[in-house]
């Protein structure tokens, strides 16, 4: 999420010109992951959220592909989806030659046909959707059922990195709202608080930032 987009409501974000933002999107430390320490912090977190064995990861709202790249470097097969053609072009360039594909499409209904995944990964995007509950139900249906390639004895997982930004006109989705939406859908819901992890953001932050890993 860029500084310009932090004050947006979900409806506003739907109208935001993400193509215009693409060229400078990676200037944010947690977007471009250009600082080696920030990059390592995200790589370590991602490794703890994703399966140890190679898996199929669907990165929704992938932006310029920074998390997709980390996942690919960890041996996973990545499909990224973003509504912005400019973002998708940058992601394709960033992951050229890797086991990754990027599609222009709506995260509410990703254009992946009958393909199913071991992980659906979403960062800072659920808050902007008009119906988060419906999105979560659809994403659950994109996961392979129990006995996936990637892990034994369980279903796939949703990895959701979200938060609430700003104090005057806050935007985002509080952790309690998200866990309430996930509880009827998931076998297990785990929350990790990220606000105090300054290395992830390239700076100290005072707002609510967190990750939820929901196992189906």
Order of helices and strands: HHHHEHEHEEHEEHEHE
* Quaternary organisation: single chain
Task: Report the sheet-strand fraction.
Answer: 15-25%
Shape estimate: globular
Distance between the termini: 27 Å
**Low-pLDDT residue intervals, each spanning 5 or more residues:** 1-12
Structural class: alpha/beta
Radius of gyration: 16 Å
**How many DSSP E strands?**
8
Helix percentage: 25-40%
Main sheet makeup:
8 strands, mixed
Continuous helix count: 9
Question: What's the overall average pLDDT, rounded?
Answer: 86
Fold and architecture overview:
The chain has helices spanning 10-15, 18-25, 29-32, 36-49, 66-73, 85-94, 132-141, 175-182, 198-201, and strands at 56-60, 77-82, 100-104, 119-123, 157-165, 171-172, 188-193, 208-215. It is α/β, with parallel strands linked by helices and 216 residues long. Strands 1, 2, 3, 4, 5, 6, 7 and 8 form an 8-stranded mixed beta sheet that branches. α2 runs parallel beside α6. It is globular.
């Amino acid at each position: 999420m860029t500084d310009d987009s932090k004050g947006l409501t979900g409806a506003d974000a739907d109208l935001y010109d993400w193509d215009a933002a693409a060229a400078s999107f990676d200037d944010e430390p947690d977007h471009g992951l250009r600082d080696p320490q920030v990059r390592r912090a995200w790589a370590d977190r991602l490794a703890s959220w994703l399966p140890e064995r190679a898996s199929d990861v669907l990165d929704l709202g992938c932006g310029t592909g920074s998390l997709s790249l980390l996942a690919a470097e960890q041996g996973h097969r990545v499909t990224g989806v973003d509504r912005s053609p400019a973002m998708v072009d940058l992601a394709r360039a960033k992951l050229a030659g890797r086991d990754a594909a990027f599609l222009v499409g709506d995260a509410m209904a990703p254009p992946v046909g009958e393909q199913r995944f071991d992980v659906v990964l979403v960062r800072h995007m659920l808050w902007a959707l008009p119906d988060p509950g419906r999105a979560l139900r659809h994403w659950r249906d994109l996961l392979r059922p129990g006995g996936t390639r990637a892990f034994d004895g369980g279903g796939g997982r949703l990895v959701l990195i979200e938060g609430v930004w700003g104090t005057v006109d806050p935007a985002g989705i509080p952790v309690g709202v998200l866990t309430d939406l996930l509880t009827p859908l998931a076998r297990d819901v785990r929350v990790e608080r990220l606000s105090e992890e300054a290395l992830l953001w390239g700076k100290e932050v005072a707002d609510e930032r967190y990750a939820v890993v929901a196992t189906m």
